[in-house]
Amino acid sequence: MEAPLLDETVEGAVDYNGRPVRRSKFGGWRSASFIIGVEVAERFAYYGIASNLINFLTDELRLSTAAAAQNVNVWSGVAMMLPLLGAFLADSFLGRYRTIALSSALYILGLGLLTVSATLPYSSTSACQQTENRVPCSPSLVHVVLFFFSLYIVAFAQGGHKPCVQAFGADQFDGQHPEESKAKSSFFNWWYFGIAVATFATFTIVSYVQDNLSWSLGFGIPCIAMIFALLVFLLGTKTYRYSSEGDVENPFVRIGRVFVMAVRNWRVISSEIAHEEEILGLLPHHSSQQFRFLDKALIVPNSSKEDGHACTISEVEEAKSLVGLAPIWVTCLAYGIVFSQSSTFFTKQGVTMDRSIVPGFEVPAASLQSFISLSIGISILIYDRIIIPIARHFTGKPSGITMLQRIGFGMILSALSMVIAALVEVKRLKTAQEYGLVDMPKATIPLSIWWLVPQYLLVGISDAFTMVGLQEFFYDQVPSGLRSIGLSLYLSIFGVGSILSSFLISAIEKLSSGDGKESWFDNNLNKAHLDYFYWSLVGLSAIGFAAFSCFARTYIYTKGNTT
């Protein structure tokens, strides 16, 4: 009886030749598996650069700890902001498939040049070795320029790749179909599980190669992974579902016109709006009661009566949905600031601690980030297979709990991770004082690096809730034509968070180092006070969560979706 349903066509989707697609032949988990594979390889490549970047900047480019952290945060911030540009190009001109393919090629170019820059010798190395005072060698200008040029090519490539791949993967499921709608909700969980697997491999393999073998090989391996990602993506070309909305008006023009018309009609009074709604035969709608200013776009300005036309109610509601995301976006920025610490100061803490497992073998400090991936993977499995079914039984919601509830719980765990990080840092500093190592920055503090594991685990568990929740929220709550933009808005939380973290570090560096005092981020971490910084982030997280809770309670889900 159900066999014919499996062969029905999917509305709004076509195959690679532009023909209507059969549900059983295109899309679904088969196509999504190719796309998840692409993301696994791409995340392996990206974190192969990002995870240990702070050590490359301090050890190879001779930057101070604070300067290196700022550079990492700025680069990470730019990389997470550029998806806004990539999503605009994809949704307006290129389409997601072509944007992914072109971005992957640019990615390979950037990683290749990065490998070359790490292979080039320092021009002043031999001269430094001949001196007796062993002044640290500085890299040549060409080396530095090539390195940062390559690094930002990777950032631009990620800007096109990141928002489109996930949106393209979710597009393989029909949200209007009961079974595929459930599969789409699981897709976001398994998507992040795949990322966790990729980053775990990166943190355990690539960071070891970079610390113990060579940086050129450590950058070359991610380049090979990205070549593999492009091949896997192209392999699934004939199985994908593609959007058939190419003849629909540019969504940016459509949304922008709403704001323009609303501003032009700023003098219009509410009675005129009500009259226009009555003429259009509109019934009161719960979401349309928000941001009533935009309802003025329903009326044609007097100066444009002859050739102008009003916006439709659906266009106004699309604009309202984007405006409604702003409070959630802003209040999640504190989480984005905390998120950026695991690849910077957490790593530098680990470098100073006892990293030996057996005599002659030391754990790379950056490899402890693998515990983030490990806890993400385990948390998602437990969440998807145990927590959701139980919660679904009590709430009746397909996803068990609402997206905003999931995000909020992760924010609490994120703040708790900073509490633990501060307490561990206090213990590290006390240990350095007890053993008389405060003035010996290169000495190994007799405190096991495994003390850092709890804070990494909590970061991972919080990511499994907040990051996955944000992905689904910003995909689901935007108009269908702006899905890539929705996901780029989610990514921009971490981009702006990283940049704000850089500004915060810079400001604290100046304030804390005045009057001859030791900076909180002193190059000698035994004299620094990272614990003060972590406590500051706890306070910032508390403020962010309080504001988030207020807006989350009043948020009205679009499309009647409360999942």
UniProtKB/TrEMBL annotation:
GO MF, any single term: dipeptide transmembrane transporter activity
GO CC terms, sorted: plant-type vacuole membrane
Pfam families: PTR2
Membrane topology: Multi-pass membrane protein
Transmembrane segments annotated in the record for this chain: 74-94, 101-120, 140-157, 190-209, 215-235, 322-343, 363-383, 404-424, 456-475, 487-508, 532-556
Location(s), subcellular: Membrane
Keywords: Membrane, Phosphoprotein, Transmembrane, Transmembrane helix, Transport
Family: Belongs to the major facilitator superfamily. Proton-dependent oligopeptide transporter (POT/PTR) (TC 2.A.17) family.
Protein name per UniProt: Protein NRT1/ PTR FAMILY 5.10-like isoform X1
Organism, as annotated: Cucurbita moschata
UniProt lineage: Eukaryota, Viridiplantae, Streptophyta, Embryophyta, Tracheophyta
